[in-house]
Specification:
alpha/beta; NAD; 5 helices; 111 residues; two-stranded parallel sheet; NADP binding; two-stranded parallel ribbon; translocase; elongated; 11% strand; AlaDH/PNT_N
Length: 111
């Protein structure tokens, strides 16, 4: 049995696995339901990408960044534009002149 990211549209690879009698489950083909959430590789990879983005930003940030900090505490009196996913912690920043820039990936949450 093989479980992993298998690209289920690669028929040559699937034929090779079947030829060897291997039962394979492509995790990217698991439906996105609450019951199968622990197997949802799209959400888990997006979560990992989010952590990576924070680490990359911290690397380029000119000052020390504490481990525990609220969104408003981190941004302080900064003015500009912010791409975020409608996290409630940013609402105070938007009241102080920060412009929220949404992404299409999160537009569905606002309707």
């Amino acid at each position: 049995m093989l479980v992993g990211m298998l690209n289920p549209f690669d028929s040559d690879n699937l034929a090779r696995l079947a030829g060897h009698g291997i039962t394979a489950f492509a995790l990217e083909a698991v439906p996105r339901t609450s019951r199968a959430q622990s197997l949802d590789v799209l959400s888990s990879q997006a979560n990992i990408a989010g952590y990576k983005a924070v680490l990359l930003a911290a690397h380029h940030y000119p000052r020390f960044m504490p481990m525990l900090m609220t969104a408003a505490g981190f941004l302080g009196d900064w003015k500009g534009q912010l791409v975020c996913d409608d996290f409630a912690g940013y609402k105070a920043c938007f009241e102080q002149g920060v412009t929220e820039i949404g992404r299409m990936a999160h537009a569905r949450r606002k309707f």
